[in-house]
Amino acid sequence: MPNTQSAIRRTKKTQAQAIVNKIRKSKYKAAIKQMATFLDSGNVQKAKSFFPKFQSQLMKVAKTGVINKKTASRKISRVTKKINQPKKK
């Protein structure tokens, strides 16, 4: 339990930020799952149309520090590579 007034305020601030981070993380996970669904089903057109929103969502989360910027870039790169792969015959 915090003893000083500043420690009490800091605890409240940390708890509030944890809630915000949890909400952002859930949006991030939802975007990842939705893109994975499009790619697994082979629906490249929907994946291409969703890609700008997907990229925006990941970079917003990375900008706020919920995930690392390099992690977001790596995921975007891998999805881009999957979208642009030529179809196998």
Count of helical stretches? 3
Write the CATH homologous superfamily: Ribosomal protein S20
What do the pLDDT scores average to?
Answer: 92
What is the class in the CATH system?
Mainly Alpha
Task: Give the helices and strands as they follow along the chain.
Answer: HHH
Question: Please, what is the oligomeric state?
Answer: single chain
Enter the CATH topology name. Answer: Methane Monooxygenase Hydroxylase, Chain G, domain 1
Helix % is over 70%
Q: Which second-level CATH architecture applies?
A: Up-down Bundle
Which secondary-structure class do the elements indicate?
Answer: mainly alpha
Rounded Rg: 18 Å
Name the overall outline.
Answer: elongated
Distance between the termini: 64 Å
Query: How many structural units, i.e. domains?
Result: 1
Biggest sheet record:
none
Low-confidence stretches: none
Report the sheet-strand fraction.
under 5%
Overall strand count: 0
Question: Could you explain how this protein is built, in words?
Answer:
Helices cover 82% and strands 0% of the residues. The protein is mostly helical and 89 residues long. Helix 1 packs antiparallel against helix 2 and helix 2 packs antiparallel against helix 3. The mean pLDDT is 92. It has a single domain, classed as Methane Monooxygenase Hydroxylase, Chain G, domain 1 (Up-down Bundle). The chain is built from 3 helices and no strands.
